[in-house]
Amino acid sequence: MAKETFRVAYLASRIGTKTLQNKIFNSGAMLVPEILKINLEEVKLITGENSISFDDFKKKKSQKWGMELVNKKKLSDLNESASNRDLARRSGCSGKYSGEIFNTLPNKELGTFVPNREFQGFIKYRLGIQVYHENNKICKRCGGKDIDGFGDHALNCKNGTIGPITRHNHVKAALAGQLKRAGIVHKVEEKVKEIQGNKKPQDITILEFSYGKQTDIDVAVPSVVTSSYLNTRTKKPGAITEKVETSKHRKYKDYYEKNKDLLGDREFLVFALDTLGGYGAEAVHIMNIIAYSVVSQTNISQVEAVRKIRQSISADLVKFIGRQFVYQI
Question: Are 295 and 287 in contact (CB under 8 A)?
Answer without folding.
Answer: no
